[in-house]
Amino acid sequence: MGHWVRTVLYRVLSLQMIPILISLLCGLVLPGSAPLQAQAEDTSLDYGAVFSGRLDNTNPRQVYYFEGLRGEVISIRLQVTDGDLDPVLTVLDNRGRLVATLDDYAGDKVPRIPALTLPQTDRYYVVVGRFGYTLGTTSGGYEVDIERVSVSSASGSQLRYGDSIINRISDMEPQLYYTFEAKAGDIINITMRRVSGDLDPYLQIVQARSGNAFVIADNDDNADSPASFDALVEALVIEEDDTYVIIASRYGQASGISSGNFLLTIDTGQNSGLGNSSRAPFPLQVGSPIEGTLTNSQYERYYRFEAQANDLLSVRMERLGGGLDPFVILADADLKPITSDDDGGGGQNAQINQFVVPDTGAYYVIATRFDRETGTTAGNYRVQVVKLGNAFDDVQEGVQRIGYGSTSSGFIDDDTPEILYAFRGEAGDTITVSMNRAEGNLDSVVSILNSDERPLVTDDDSGGNQNARIAAYTLPSSGTYYIRAGRYTGDPPGDPNTSGSFILVLAQRVN
User: How many whole angstroms from its chain centre is CA 476?
Assistant: First the structure.
């Protein structure tokens, strides 16, 4: 289309009519209509990426979209790579409302939007077309890219990790608000530093969940710098995916008296992200495998799961690729290691077999590599916790359960001449069982039985004073064992009718 036609069009059309023309030419919706939906032919325009295309009679325009945040300042650049293309650049929001449009820039026929502040968090559409669109005559190739230049310091802007902004707290504006999106497991640091005046900064972090507001952290003075008035929220662990609000204020907030400029910075802390540290473990469902990657910089990952007392578990860490030599650790709720394995799964795969959960509660799996921090292997892996059943599935109902380090009490008489206890042991465990009389004239006798309830070892008086004690007995295999607490039966001759209360102790010797 000739230059004189373009001039006439721009003189005749009012500013209000330009969006209508654009909508008609682009095939998009008019302002005020339903939200736009990305079409299959539309392309996601990512910050920092360069996209190329071609406009001609067959394809007079191309639509891209990007996810923008309120207050972001962006730059969109368009270059013609060949042909006589006379391009037009248009930005629309998700409802088809015009945000910006440009034909020529600074005397150049190629349009460029050097600094556009986004009015809201939304999906935006970038339309690259030729002048006149379907009525145009030019054609050629082009390249388009979008850059995030900065973010507005105005209250209400939405920040990304790594952003820093400068603003001012005064009597007119004693509080300013900024939002950010965070995911569960993010570990973040937010600093509000005074740069002028006598400002005494005060920070609050609010979770905006389901229309309610919850203050999850606040700070007045940085404890690490007692001489400063800077506010710092450090190593805050995000519990839920949500939108969060930063309230930047001063000590006393609206009723405070300090004022001045501040520098606000938000960034992620060390090992931020689910599973990257013990502070933000990845939730692991028993029976569901999870895949991950270990590197020299991230040589271990943390998973948390719930288990019931006496659950029988298998924990497997399998190498999927690379030269990784897996090493898996099972830890209790206080992150104290309970057991670990290097090559129990075969082929350098790690597997903890037949683990009996001692108490109901939370447990951790630490997926790492041989030699952990000083190790050299890396690669992909799969980790899984499988429930094999209950350690006492085959034990008759009514038989008491006991574990290493446990104490139990009972009473022996004619009605109850013996009491049976079940416990789970591993091959090579060295244990001691003591049965001490508490009251009465009980002559204690204690036995360790195998899973078929056949006696393996019995003692009568090794504990002294008619107390029974089996010391340093090594279990021959892994499985269920029984302790039978009873009394002397009169063979050889003696009193078979003793009775009384007792205290039973099961202990494991740790080498």
Answer: 43
